Amino acid sequence: MPSTTTEMVMEPKKINGTFCSMMPCCGIFAGALVSGYEPQEVFDAYKVATNKTARWKGSTTRMRLVNLIQSEFGVKLKQVEGLNYMTVRNFHFKHAKPSATYLVYVRRHVMVIDKGRLIDQWHCEPVETAKKNRCRITNVYEVTSCVDIPEGKVSGIETEEDQTAAHQSEKDAKLQIDKDRLWKGACKYGLDTKAIAFFRGQKMRLIGYNPRKKSHPFLIEVFEKNGRPCNFIGETSVYSAQSWFSISNTEEAA
Q1: Which domains can be identified in the chain, with CATH numbers?
Q2: 3 state DSSP class of 238
């Protein structure tokens, strides 16, 4: 009876509910791979160590990341000298040890070489055919501590359908956050969250608030247009929200 092998696929990793493949977090993801910790743990540690704000999405600098994963996550690194900006592919075939794991820096990006694979938060491909194998190296570190990166695919999202579902999931999560803080915007600007507004044949209601969007912080849902049901979500300004949903307006109408 012929044997069959099934490639192991690691569940796509997230940081704060967002897939790593949708974030500029190559350093965080690489640090997580070589340390054996979750990207969320490395993200949180880097954020604290560098005093990042809530708006930070995961970008790192080389020395800060290298120092962090060594001091806080027990990773041991040995810098490889004398590469003179050779390509990732040439380094892999001419200089890399087959059994070793490497943290590979190219211009504005960082990846991991492990078991013949070039890995970042988007791709996990054989080095010889990887999309970024012709990038020129700026720095390389051999990971001399124990590394246990799973076989098979360890990054990205497997299919286009999964990618679409991931985008929708992220969009839904962000919408829910805006919905949950609607009461804050309503209290601040004196709005009735249960009011229905009428404008140019449209019926609409308030559904969300994002204070970071200075010009159009409120979300509205248009649920009827010219007497027909519809479903459209848009943004509007404080001025428009007050003209449609102000508590004083609804009290006068009553």
Answers
A1: 14-162 (3.90.70), 181-253 (no CATH)
A2: helix
